[in-house]
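Subject: Sanity check before I submit

Could someone independently write out the structure tokens for this chain? I want to compare against mine line by line before I put it in a report. The sequence has 358 residues.
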Amino acid sequence: MRHVIALDVGGTGMKAALVGADGGLLHQDRRATGRERGPEAVIEAILEFAGDLRAHGEHRFGEPAAAAGVAVPGIVDADRGIAAYAANLGWRDVPLRDLLSDRLSGIPVALGHDVRTGGLAEGRIGAGRGADRFLFVPLGTGIAGAIGIDGSVEAGAHGFAGEIGHVVVRPGGTDCACGQRGCLERYASASAVSQAWALAKGDPDADAADCARAVAAGDPSAAAVWQDAVDALADGLVTALTLLDPRTLIIGGGLAEAGDTLFVPLREAVRRRVTFQKLPEIVPAALGDGAGCLGAGLLAWDLLAAAATPPAAGGSGATPADPATPATPATHVGPNGPATPASPATPTTPTDLSEVTT
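---
Independent answer below. Compare away.
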């Protein structure tokens, strides 16, 4: 049975799947990243995990994986297949695509940025399904973004497109690790809300989830902290929608788990700020922490589809597309045709996703 390897590498854990040609998840697994052992050990853990997945697929399905897709954090050079930098994993300039291909007996490998890869999945099979233009913004330890256009995700000229977390929303404000002051992620990320609420409450263990619960319970001090974050987020999102004009804004990450506690005031805050701009749908992400793994599967199938595309008239052959901007849009993980699009305002989740996200 033809299948691909999908691997999502995080700061503490890795999620993986074998994905069939129909988009089905044939096998799922998780392992620790092991970053406490250093970057070389992390790289070996990734290669070993991928090798074990290949062996499992060959034993169970009678043939090895046809391709692999891997999503990693930090700065990624998708064109060259290099994991350029990741502060939380400690690596620099790792030729991860070539290392994985060598370990997997030479099969094609697509390397992608974790947020853009997750955005690819949300755009095709999640909350952005059916939308021609979307912006995916996960609110976690930091804030990043994925710009979706017709089923693809725009990486930018240098691979930095979508870094909305470093849009300055409070000039002269809090110092950011990027070297600027007043960046969005210093006010509206889950870690920023946790820090502000811990300070307001005088409890170093208080976090963003505690703050959300306190807001829902009517705590005025929590409401003030929360509104500051919502206002900063709305400022950043309005800047983004002014530049990009998305049809759908998809909000994910830890803060999105607050549900209406976040989305009701956020929608109102964005609505108050728009003037000439068209107000997009603002919806929660649908795929949870499985988005990166599902997106990695999409990258792998896109790579195979690009390689199978007949050459243009007068051309010398097909040239695979940059995995961050796949040449063959689809709305499912496999290559056998699109699923029926759902409304972007009512995101749907694949029936087999629960095994990945639990």
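---
OP: Matches mine. For the report I'm noting this point. The longest helix spans residues 220-244.
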